[in-house]
Amino acid sequence: MLFELDEIFEEEGLSLNIPRYVKQVYAKSLKNTSIILEYVTQFGVSGELNIWALDEGKIVMYKHLEPDSDKAVVRQYLKGKVLMSKKGKENEAIEALTKAIEKYDRHAQAYERRAKINFVLQKDHDALRDYNKSIGLDPNNPYAYLGKAEVYIKKNELDNAIESLDLAIKKSVALQAIHWTSRRLKGKMHLRKAEFKKAEFEYKLFTKRKFPKGNANIMWRREAFFDYGRVLLGLEDYAEAVNAFESSLDLEEGNDKIPDAEKLRFRGIAKQKAGQNGFKKDIKEAANMGDKEAEELLKSFA
After folding, report:
1. What DSSP assignment string belongs to 45-91?
2. Could you tell me if 283 and 294 are in contact, meaning their C-beta atoms sit under 8 angstroms apart?
3. Is the pTM higher than 0.85?
4. What is the distance between the alpha carbons of residues 162 and 169, in angstroms, rounded to a whole number?
5. Measured in whole angstroms, how far is the alpha carbon of residue 6 from the centre of its chain?
6. What tens-digit pLDDT sequence spans the chain (302 residues)?
């Protein structure tokens, strides 16, 4: 085992608690530890453990452990998790998660999941209440901080959103998708506040990251490059802004709904400020695609 029993078992709270732990290990020790932790996890009623093994930077093993037993509280929680992913089943999911909480009122994950559904149902007050309850029970769950930030973003409380996103980043690791989701959103909030240097830090990290196949952040790269370009314009780094807008235009797929005309207009503006050729062509193309601001820019050139 990689741990001594008295290091990870808390008798007073009847819990198993492993803080963030990074160490070079033998394969046998890792295997033994993961098998025993997987077994022990099933005696619990809530909580989760994540285990990664890396070899020269590549993930060679990953395990996500959480209770999956016949205990009533566990079954209700897992039922709620399944239902919340099904459209139209939100109220049933809330009912299942509420039953799990009634059976064990310290179930941080159930509060966090219920908060997410409340947010989807536009019950922002209930969502924020459940996120705060979850964080009070488990201050190391990054998903609760990200969810809380999403509520603040909707309420346009940018400072509160940034604070929660910063905690989501600190409570997660770079191997998790949520870490990069939080960085992208934090950059977006800094951009909205015209805090360009802080936004640059987040977007530079995000846009340089190579995400593995299937990672949800891949579909946000196109928007991230566009926003990064706007940040670089604010920092008067016009040549790099051109590159960022080009990267956004080059990506064929993405979750953003930013018109290509708008991207062309911004690239044209960046090219003009960088002293590069082709800026009129970009803005003219944007105008031909129906971009009104590009049309006004063409008039000013004339």
Report:
1. SS--EEEEEEETTEEEEEEEE---SS-HHHHHHHHHHHHHTSTT-HH
2. yes
3. yes
4. 10
5. 34
6. 899 888 999 988 889 999 889 999 999 999 999 999 999 999 999 999 999 999 988 899 999 999 999 999 999 999 999 999 999 999 999 999 999 999 999 999 999 999 999 999 999 999 999 999 999 999 999 999 999 999 999 999 999 999 999 999 999 999 999 999 999 999 999 999 999 999 999 999 999 999 999 999 999 999 999 999 999 999 999 999 999 999 999 999 999 999 999 999 999 999 999 999 999 999 999 999 999 999 999 988 87
